[in-house]
Design brief:
Elements (H helix, E strand, L loop, with lengths): L9 E4 L2 E4 L3 H7 L6 H13 L5 E5 L9 E5 H14 L7 E4 L6 H13 L2 E4 L14 E6 L1 H4 L9 E6 L9 H6 L4 E8 L4 E7 L9 E3 L4 E4 L4 E5 L8 E9 L4 E7 L4 E3 L2 E3 L1 H8 L7 E8 L3 E9 L9 H4 L11 E5 L12 H10 L5 E2 L2
Parallel strand pairs: 1-6, 5-6, 7-8, 8-9, 19-20
Antiparallel strand pairs: 1-2, 3-4, 9-10, 10-11, 11-15, 12-13, 13-14, 14-15, 16-17, 18-19, 20-21
Helix pairs in contact: 1-2, 3-4
């Protein structure tokens, strides 16, 4: 049966050790747990072991309203097996669950441990999970905001898989210098049952290119949007909103999202590429976005998270790295952004707030 448990599986949660023999009983007993994160784990496991061949999974809502989709459990097992094989996770491995099981990333970490038959330490999702665990961990999937602000601090995790949101360029130099941990960036979405490609961020395998996992091939549309073919994960090829540069049928460089592209006077600008060149000069969270322009149709703007009274920016330093059409025409400063649960900035909602608070913004012409 697709939802059987490997005999080596152990769930370690709140000082309790739950074996493969007692996991179903534990799940039923904890459906009403007063701790929401524990109840969420129990709810997922209860559904995992029921008679249904599918699970209802919620998308993150990073590019639109969150929605529920149906995913076959058998495909989740296939995806879990691919990840376990890639990272060489065996019955003697240890893993960490510090993500919400309301979303695919958290669910898939449980499935990987169930299928691989290894130990998984579950802790309440928090901003710095590495400080909450002292046991040596072989593998931990985390969102960037859970680990990047704490780079350089000692921890016991051998391999960290970052996903759910892009890695801010300002962290990459420090990340590459960390030789104690292997960092990978995942590429995927709920529809592909977690990641379909991985990119090494440090070490001898570090690269700008994502490498597809076994069984996945890629191509692009005439507009360079990524098309994913994965017969054991997808029923039909999936055309994404991601603009990429192909190296071959299994490697690609991510450039940005098609729905983010700024058309400024006929010149197409990828805000993610502009952000990379601005990043060395800004310590605050920020993003590049677009607004209507009567002449250009759309123009580039910069939105910064911070306190306008204390914020110090000197665009003359970093504007030299930008083409004239890439230079932000307006800078908006907000005290806080809107984020998804996985740490992605909700760009549309945040920019709408910035426009509504136009009186408290700064302008650069």
């Amino acid at each position: 049966m697709a939802t059987s448990v490997n005999s080596g599986f152990q769930l370690l949660i709140e000082n309790e050790i739950v074996s493969h023999k007692t996991i179903q009983y534990w799940a039923k007993e904890n459906l009403g747990n007063k701790s929401e994160w524990i109840a969420a784990i129990a709810q997922f496991l209860t559904h995992w072991f029921d008679e249904s061949e599918t699970l209802t999974v919620k998308t993150s809502g990073s590019t639109g309203k969150p929605k529920n989709i149906q995913i076959r459990k058998s495909k989740m097992v296939v995806s879990a097996t691919k990840t376990n094989h890639f990272f060489q996770l065996t019955t003697s491995s240890t893993s960490l669950l510090a993500l919400s099981t309301n979303y695919i990333a958290g669910k898939m970490m449980l499935v990987r441990a169930l299928v691989g038959g290894y130990s998984i330490y579950a802790i309440e999702p928090q901003s710095n999970p590495l400080s909450a665990i002292s046991t040596p961990i072989d593998f931990a999937p985390l969102v960037p905001m859970q680990v990047l602000p704490f780079l350089g601090e000692s921890h016991s995790v051998k391999t960290i898989l970052l996903g759910g949101a892009p890695v801010p360029p300002k962290y990459l130099p420090s990340l590459k210098k960390d030789l104690n941990t292997n960092y990978f960036l995942s590429f995927g979405m709920t529809e592909t049952v977690s990641h379909i490609a991985l990119r090494a961020l440090n070490g001898p395998s570090a690269s700008e290119y994502f490498i597809c996992v076994k069984g996945v091939t890629i191509s692009t549309t005439p507009s360079n949007q990524l098309v994913i073919e994965a017969p054991d994960l997808l029923d039909t090829p999936l055309e994404t909103n991601d603009i990429v540069s192909l190296e071959n049928q299994s490697e690609f460089k991510w450039l940005g999202r098609a729905d983010f592209v700024i058309n400024s006077g006929g010149v197409k600008i990828h805000p993610e590429e502009v952000e990379k060149r601005i990043a060395p000069y800004l310590t605050e969270n920020f993003f590049v976005w677009k607004e209507f322009d009567e002449t250009l149709q759309e123009r580039v703007v910069l939105v910064i998270e911070g306190d306008e009274k204390t914020l110090k920016i000197n665009p003359s330093d970093w504007y030299t790295n930008l083409h004239s059409y890439e230079k932000p025409k307006t800078v908006y400063v907000l005290s806080s952004f809107y984020y998804t649960e996985t740490g992605k900035v909700k760009r549309n909602e945040t920019f709408e707030l910035a426009q509504n608070e136009r009186d408290s913004t700064s302008s650069i012409t």
